[in-house]
């Protein structure tokens, strides 16, 4: 077996690309050249690239009920290749029992979680590295002591311009006993992975108020910006977007259909075929139809185009995300099961993942070696 | 075994240890190297493969033959086996490798705990026993996709057995596949080496398997192992 020891480095590169993160992490210390190769940012980037093309997953966060009727959170990954799934152990204090746990986003193997109150966590489930973000840099009270800060919106994404991963937080200061429908003041801060503190984004205009609601899913990272469901100051429903690189907000108009006053309809924002897509569907009903509208030119209201309607489908609660080359959509069933609907064959596949109804959240996910503490690494693309 | 449906031209390949192998052209040109030789018109007489031992060459030829056969079989499209597999798959429960036990337990207890969400009480049916409106959908939900199914799987199984050899043979295959430029073999061998590493249970085992000597001092190695446990 002496042969293999003499294999040129190029060969090991090819072999290592096909190794899971767990093996690479464990065997880094075999020898110095292995260590150097596995830690090399260029290699980490190639490995991530390889996984993105060959080993893509859907990450599902859901709630399960224990025998005592308590809700616990569970993360699972579903393989795009063969639909098999596995539960992943995410070793975080803020994880199992947190009732309001939200998945903020995923970038290059790092996921961001929060309870929207006091804790935000970054985690790489594959390397098992995790980190609680430092405390906010924004003041707890302003000159008017009646205004209390509250986290209005959170987002996590790429800043491709500066090669950073960032968490953005919009904080609103509200009258303690007043009307909370329009916050008095909003301030924004950003945390860049690999640094040790938040930094306020000064001189920025928050152009709309985020309407927080975990159901239906809306928060989406796309095209270098994070998007939320919001109301602008003229009471129009808009998509508020924060460009991670420019650190600036803009409002993106929703299509005129359907009427925002129709409260029986939910709107979910997803990404489909490289565009933002809005899915409109009834909030209630045993049978639902899902209308898909795509914004073909990013940011241009006129480019919203009705693409297709799925259904009516029986027993489906809501859409979660597109996958399988955008030919299928993961959805949540009325009884709390994850299914996948294929537009072409019109078949529904049971993914056999069950949970408390309306507790599902999904994201695309890949395993990577990207380190949270080392922050700035070679990003893909 | 297939009957060759081309001109049936036969090439002579000579191994490192001077053994001659007669191989059909359609099989031999799975190797880019040999394909180039043929296209350049240099395939008269014997093609010497200076770095490939006869033992390895024999295996490589077997690989190439299998892949030529597979392509031919699929073109002629024999569907009978496919249909048989499809039918049996519909009847059997699909497997996944997630640990279902916890979910099943929780799911069962969920059935008794639907008080918490009044709105959902109506829709909260126990799994498998749906009300009438869901019935039509149940069949669809149990659909197991079966694409090319058996043929592809059969090839995969054959390939897995093929690369399941001792390390020296694997190494020889790797070098041969590279020298001869046979992408399918190269890809499969690389994957196999990766799988061998994956299955090692310790760093020491990896070192032994690959004949690698550690050039870390014990202290350095300890430091690296510590790096891995991220405790906040």
UniProtKB/TrEMBL annotation, chain A:
<dbReference type="Pfam" id="PF08268">
    <property type="entry name" value="FBA_3"/>
</dbReference>
<dbReference type="InterPro" id="IPR017451">
    <property type="entry name" value="F-box-assoc_interact_dom"/>
</dbReference>
<dbReference type="InterPro" id="IPR013187">
    <property type="entry name" value="F-box-assoc_dom_typ3"/>
</dbReference>
<dbReference type="Pfam" id="PF00646">
    <property type="entry name" value="F-box"/>
</dbReference>
<dbReference type="InterPro" id="IPR001810">
    <property type="entry name" value="F-box_dom"/>
</dbReference>
<feature type="domain" description="F-box">
    <location>
        <begin position="1"/>
        <end position="46"/>
    </location>
</feature>
<dbReference type="InterPro" id="IPR036047">
    <property type="entry name" value="F-box-like_dom_sf"/>
</dbReference>
<dbReference type="InterPro" id="IPR050796">
    <property type="entry name" value="SCF_F-box_component"/>
</dbReference>
<protein>
    <submittedName>
        <fullName>F-box/kelch-repeat protein At3g06240-like</fullName>
    </submittedName>
</protein>
Automatic annotation (TrEMBL), chain B:
<dbReference type="Pfam" id="PF03931">
    <property type="entry name" value="Skp1_POZ"/>
</dbReference>
<comment type="pathway">
    <text>Protein modification; protein ubiquitination.</text>
</comment>
<feature type="domain" description="SKP1 component POZ">
    <location>
        <begin position="9"/>
        <end position="68"/>
    </location>
</feature>
<keyword id="KW-0833">Ubl conjugation pathway</keyword>
<protein>
    <submittedName>
        <fullName>SKP1-like protein 1B</fullName>
    </submittedName>
</protein>
<dbReference type="InterPro" id="IPR036296">
    <property type="entry name" value="SKP1-like_dim_sf"/>
</dbReference>
<dbReference type="Pfam" id="PF01466">
    <property type="entry name" value="Skp1"/>
</dbReference>
<dbReference type="InterPro" id="IPR011333">
    <property type="entry name" value="SKP1/BTB/POZ_sf"/>
</dbReference>
<dbReference type="InterPro" id="IPR016897">
    <property type="entry name" value="SKP1"/>
</dbReference>
<dbReference type="GO" id="GO:0009867">
    <property type="term" value="P:jasmonic acid mediated signaling pathway"/>
</dbReference>
<dbReference type="InterPro" id="IPR001232">
    <property type="entry name" value="SKP1-like"/>
</dbReference>
<feature type="region of interest" description="Disordered">
    <location>
        <begin position="90"/>
        <end position="153"/>
    </location>
</feature>
<feature type="compositionally biased region" description="Acidic residues">
    <location>
        <begin position="139"/>
        <end position="153"/>
    </location>
</feature>
<dbReference type="InterPro" id="IPR016072">
    <property type="entry name" value="Skp1_comp_dimer"/>
</dbReference>
<dbReference type="GO" id="GO:0006511">
    <property type="term" value="P:ubiquitin-dependent protein catabolic process"/>
</dbReference>
<comment type="similarity">
    <text>Belongs to the SKP1 family.</text>
</comment>
<feature type="domain" description="SKP1 component dimerisation">
    <location>
        <begin position="184"/>
        <end position="231"/>
    </location>
</feature>
<dbReference type="InterPro" id="IPR016073">
    <property type="entry name" value="Skp1_comp_POZ"/>
</dbReference>
<dbReference type="GO" id="GO:0016567">
    <property type="term" value="P:protein ubiquitination"/>
</dbReference>
């Amino acid at each position: 077996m002496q042969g293999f020891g003499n294999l040129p480095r190029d060969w090991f590169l090819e072999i290592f690309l096909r190794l899971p993160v767990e093996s690479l992490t464990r065997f880094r210390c075999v020898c110095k050249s292995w260590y150097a190769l596995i830690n090399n940012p260029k290699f980490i980037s190639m490995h991530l690239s390889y996984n993105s093309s060959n080993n893509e997953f859907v990450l599902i966060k859901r709630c399960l009920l224990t025998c005592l009727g308590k809700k616990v959170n569970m993360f699972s990954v579903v393989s795009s290749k063969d639909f098999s799934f596995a539960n992943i152990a995410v070793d975080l204090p803020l994880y199992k029992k947190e009732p309001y746990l939200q998945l903020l986003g995923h970038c290059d193997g790092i996921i961001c979680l929060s309870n929207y109150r006091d804790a935000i966590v970054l985690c790489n489930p594959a390397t098992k590295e995790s980190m609680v973000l430092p405390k906010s840099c924004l003041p707890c009270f302003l000159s008017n002591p009646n205004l209390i800060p509250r986290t209005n919106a959170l987002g996590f994404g790429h800043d491709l311009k500066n090669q950073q991963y960032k968490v953005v937080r919009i904080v609103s200061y509200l009258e303690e006993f007043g009307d909370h429908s329009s916050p008095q003041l909003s301030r924004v801060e950003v945390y860049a992975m690999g640094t040790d503190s938040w930094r306020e984004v000064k001189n920025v205009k928050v152009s709309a108020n985020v309407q927080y609601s975990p159901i239906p899913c809306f928060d989406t990272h796309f095209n270098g910006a994070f998007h939320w469901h919001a109301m602008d100051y003229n009471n129009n429903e808009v998509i508020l977007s924060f460009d991670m690189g420019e650190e600036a907000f803009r409002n993106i108009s929703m299509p005129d259909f359907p009427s925002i006053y129709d409260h029986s309809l939910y709107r979910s924002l997803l990404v489909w075929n490289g565009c933002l897509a809005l899915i409109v569907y009834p909030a209630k009903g045993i049978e639902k139809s899902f209308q898909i509208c795509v914004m073909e030119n990013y940011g241009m209201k006129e480019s919203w185009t009705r693409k297709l309607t799925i259904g009516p489908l029986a027993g489906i609660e809501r859409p979660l995300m597109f996958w399988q080359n955008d030919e299928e959509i993961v959805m949540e069933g009325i009884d709390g099961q994850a299914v996948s609907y294929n537009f072409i064959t019109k078949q529904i596949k049971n993914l056999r993942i069950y949970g408390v109804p309306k507790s599902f959240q999904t994201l695309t996910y890949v395993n990577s070696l990207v380190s949270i503490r080392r922050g700035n690494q070679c990003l893909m693309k | 075994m297939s009957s060759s449906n081309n001109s049936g031209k036969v090439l002579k390949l000579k191994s490192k240890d001077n053994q001659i192998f007669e191989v059909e052209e359609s099989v031999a040109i799975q190797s880019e190297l040999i394909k180039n030789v043929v296209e350049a018109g240099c395939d008269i007489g014997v093609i010497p493969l200076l770095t490939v031992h006869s033992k390895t060459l024999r295996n490589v030829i077997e690989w190439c033959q299998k892949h030529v056969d597979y392509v031919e079989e699929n073109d002629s499209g024999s569907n009978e086996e496919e249909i048989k597999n499809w039918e049996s798959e519909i009847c059997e429960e699909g497997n996944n490798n997630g640990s279902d036990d916890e979910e099943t337990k929780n799911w069962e207890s969920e059935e008794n705990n639907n008080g918490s969400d009044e709105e959902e009480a109506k829709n909260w049916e126990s799994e498998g026993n749906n009300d009438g409106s869901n019935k039509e959908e149940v069949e669809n939900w149990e659909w197991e996709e079966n694409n090319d199914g058996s043929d592809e799987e059969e090839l995969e199984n054959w390939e897995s057995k093929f690369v399941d050899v001792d390390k020296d043979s694997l190494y020889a295959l790797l070098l041969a596949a590279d020298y001869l430029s046979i992408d399918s073999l190269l890809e499969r061998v690389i994957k196999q080496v990766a799988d061998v590493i994956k299955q090692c249970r310790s760093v020491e085992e990896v070192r032994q398997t690959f004949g690698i000597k550690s050039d870390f001092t014990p202290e350095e190695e300890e430091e690296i192992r510590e790096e891995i446990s991220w405790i906040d």
